[in-house]
TrEMBL record:
The gene is Dcaf17. The keyword Isomerase does not apply. The chain crosses the membrane at residues 195-215, 227-246. Keywords: Membrane, Transmembrane, Transmembrane helix. GO terms for cellular component: Cul4-RING E3 ubiquitin ligase complex. It holds the Pfam family DCAF17. The lineage of its organism: Eukaryota, Metazoa, Chordata, Craniata, Vertebrata. It comes from the Eukaryota. GO terms for biological process: protein ubiquitination. This is DCA17 factor. InterPro entries: DCAF17.
Amino acid sequence: AGGGRAAPRACGVHNVCRLLTRRAHGFYARDAGVAHRKNLGLLRKIMCQESTKFKNVWTTHSASPIAYERGRIYMDNYQCCISSIAQEPRILYQKSKCAKSEKVEDALLLECPLGEMLPSPSDYKASLIVLTVQNWLLRLSADSGEVLEKVYLAGSCCKFFRYLSWDTPQEVMIVKSAQNKLPAAARQAGIQQTVLFYLAVFQVLPLSFIGMLEINKKIFGNSVTDVAVSNGILIVMYSMGLVRLYNFKAILEQFMEQPFDLGQEFNWNGQVGVVGKYPFGLPCNIKITDTPPLLFEASSLENAFQIGGYPWHYIITPNKKKHKGVFHICSLKDNALAKNGIQDMKCCSLEPDWIYFHPDMSGRIIHVGPNLIKVLKFKEVKNHADQMEIAEDFTIVANRENCVNNTVTVTASGRVVKKRFTSLDDDPEQETFKIVDYEDELDLLSTVAVTQIGADGRAHLDFHCNEHGILLKSIPLKESWDVTYSHEVYFDKDLVLHIEQKPNRRFSCYVYQMVCDTAKDDD
């Protein structure tokens, strides 16, 4: 621009891998992401300084659920939005109390894609997609709550849409119905219900209708319990623990009867209406008439099934109750069990351990037990290039004392009796891991560990180096933590947010913000 010369191409570096590596290290000052990466690196260093504290700046309580999305706290069934970015949280908008018929069932945050030309200026700002109990899909401004778009979903085919999820994050959205169930009287009369679920598929920004399809017993079998769509894969789960995968994109292309656009007038199966408008809603224009080609199937306890790693592997638990807590890591290519691929912490605990592929896209695996976190990695077996081995990358261990305790009792005659016993691995009186998460922008692994003595529970949030597991920072949470309650903890750059659900639908939200202060005080 302005007649300036173009910079020579990376000083003669032509290898793609080297170019990407040098760019990641910030070699090119003109790269738009360099300043952002440097700023995040500085923020990480400041955050992990000993003098940096996290101060509880705001607390609120509510009789309705509290949700958090990218710096915004939603209360009163999404009628109230509070910004958590300011020095003290402030209200962005507050709507009047909605009727029960307008209750929000689910919501997704929608952010503008980079490098896309969009039809409306409002599309370039963050918005919230909400699904109401009366089957309306609304797109709201994330900052004002203004309704930007509205789509009526349910025509004559379905009356109960309840769930929102991403097929491709920020690109393709799935709206799923509750499972169709006939009334008891209809079942007693011998009426058969063959359609189990409806799925409506949308492209977002601009919001456009791709199609609606039904999951039918006649096609997928009688024992279907649930379905999901993720990354172009239709996942069908069965009551006996079976999980089957199908190519969702191929299903859309093969069984699409007729495409429709939102706002288009249509005459469909004797109905005349407008797509996405009340009372007609959306046509069910994708009819699966034959079982699609099966990509993969596996049997796993409670349908637990995950894919990840490089090369592709999957994690399952053998489909017997006695194997609960045992995880098998197998190759997706040939189902071969990886070397050291059986992971079993042999926990004696009320709550089971859990395992998942690391969200940092490194291909590693995180295995979390009551007092131990293992980060595992894949590596090639020597002299067997086709086989992979599961190796330990690093571990994080809870800070606890010996779990073997003595209880002393005195009988009526004065005799002292000592009983020796071993406590559970997740004994609340010993420090126990409750939450493990990953902050992608700062490349930090965060853990929440809790110790409860009597009615008083204490928790701390720790930041670990994601590469080596080294403890960098520990933040004590001021509020008491009851292990019998439901908890969520969000770590978002310089913000920590704790949402707690108590009995009788009582909710609390505690907001902590980073404070840099060299003075030694209680904050």
